Amino acid sequence: MTTSTNSPFDNVSHDLGDALILRPLKPGHAKALGAAMAAIPPWSVVNWSAPSIAASLQREVPALQRFEVLQDGRLAGIVAIQHPFLHGPYLQLFCVLPEFQGRGLGCRLLQWMEDEARKGGARQLWLCVSTFNTRAEALYRRFGFESVGVLDKLAIDESDEIFMRKRLF
Q1: Would strands 90-96 and 124-130 be described as parallel, antiparallel, or unpaired?
Q2: Which strands sit side by side in the sheet containing 146-151, from one edge to the other?
Q3: What's the pTM value of the predicted model, to 2 decimals?
Q4: 2 CB contacts (<8 Å, ≥6 apart)?
Q5: What pLDDT digit, counting tens, does each position of 104-158 carry?
Q6: Half-sphere exposure of 91 (CA within 13 A, CB side)
């Protein structure tokens, strides 16, 4: 159940049920998320530091909404969505912290994104994933995303980014 009654991805809290809550990122949580993310792939692979990630999470970006993910009241990750994008939202950042992985949270968050996009009349969902991030790529493919292009050596020289979309029509 979502508390938003306006447009998709409004910067409000969203109750997804079963004690899974998305709410606007609190500035104080950016530092904790930065530290957690810097220690895990893909951010550890591209060598992003905790302070850099935290600063990025606090930077104002037009049309980008950042939601902290709470499971049972505990910080479980972050989702950042740019909307509008190309006739649908772009999943700019997606992280489920390790202790919360393997519980279906990723699928539930992607389903929330799709549901919100459909409410707004979107035609597709978009994201990029690093070629070394095979686990995330597999999740996205299971959820119906398909490759539409490759951006070579975008984040680091040793890897490419796969530009993916899921059609909603």
Answers
A1: parallel
A2: 14-15, 20-24, 64-71, 74-82, 90-96, 124-130, 161-167, 146-151
A3: 0.91
A4: 14, 15, 16, 112, 115, 116
A5: 999 999 999 999 999 999 999 999 999 999 999 999 999 999 999 999 998 888 9
A6: 27
CA distance 94 to 91: 7
**How far lies 15's CA from each of 10, 35, 66, 75, 138, in Å?**
13, 26, 15, 14, 26
Amino acid at 18: D
Contact of 105 with 19, CB cutoff 8 Å: no
Copy the structure tokens of residue 147: 């490759």
Across 58-104, the runs of DSSP E, i.e. the strands, are 64-71, 74-82, 90-96
DSSP string, 7-57: STT-SS-EE-STTEEEEEPPHHHHHHHHHHHHTSTTTTTTT--HHHHHHHH
